[in-house]
Amino acid sequence: MACKGDDIIPPMLVINRREVESLIDLDELVDALAPAMVELSAGTVSLPPRIAADVPARSAFVGVMPTYLPSSESLAVKLVSVFPHNDALGLESHHAMIAVFDAGTGVVEAVMDGSHITATRTAAGSALATRLLARGDAHVLALLGTGVQARAHARAIPRVRPVREIRVAGRNREKAVTVARELSDELGLTVVAAASYEDAASGADIVCTATHSTEPVLRWRWLRAGAHVNSVGLNPAGRELDDDTVANALVVVESRDSALAPPPAGANDLLWPIRDGRIAKSHVHAEVGELISGAKPGRTSAEQVTLYKSVGVAVQDAVAARLVLEKARGRGMGTEVAL
Fold first, then answer.
1. What is the pLDDT of residues 214-228, one digit of tens each?
2. pLDDT(294) > 60
3. What are the domain boundaries of the chain?
4. Alpha-carbon distance 91 to 57, whole Å?
5. CATH code given to domain 132-312
6. What pLDDT is attached to residue 81?
7. How far is CA 199 from CA 190, 202, 252, in A?
8. Nearest Cα to 143, choosing from 193, 208, 195, 194?
9. Which CATH class is domain 12-117+315-337?
10. What is the predicted pLDDT for the residue at 4?
């Protein structure tokens, strides 16, 4: 027997990864994130802390990330798994799906692949921060990491700064060489594999760290005056940045509440120096939204080192998912499924 309402509930749209990849536009997403980050900093967004179920045997977890943005009526939940040892199996470390709900009725509008969205929105967030904080003449980009996020950042950062050279470094030299060759062919830029994290970061104008490392892959003494750092790696058991980098840089985050929350939401890169007395919570200078609105200043000198520490917020997923859904509807893409 059909339940009441079965005949009026519209089918949801299932959008697969290939379709998501064809629908998402990186430049459009960078621009769309800006007002959403302002809204987040204004306190009008519902963004509970990320929760997760741990899988200790795999040093892994599955996280739940819901959010609601009133201005765009975006209501979404992302489910994401992080299995850092998948590389040995030839699999990506992050897998995700996003459910989009009608904000007026709660009806499920769509379910879509979230893995590509996660990589793209993270890189778009870094591109937005780079646009706000990096020197205008920044042209050497260092990528510390050789995974999906490193590749995504290689595509995103040159859109906001005149990058002419990219250096890639990772734990596996062979993989760094492969990534450098592939990115060079794709981007038409000079991309080289550095011998070490230090070699990649030393003298670079922009450094992006995208690892699952438990030990710092970036140290303050390697950074040139005026460098900008985007740190997007997250490991509940470690950190990417040393204390000196965090203590000496102008620190910007997506959300203070998220960045300083206990794991799995917060960043050990910030939490551990606070715990050890190296910095206070007030050392976090601004949120991205505060820079955009003008509530807080950004870079104040050409020599200042700036740091954007990202933990990934569901607001970014919701914005990206809404863009994908609107385009899918407009182009007749996706598969309708009745629940």
1. 999 999 999 999 999
2. yes
3. 12-117+315-337, 132-312
4. 17
5. 3.40.50.720
6. 94
7. 16, 6, 25
8. 208
9. alpha beta
10. 54
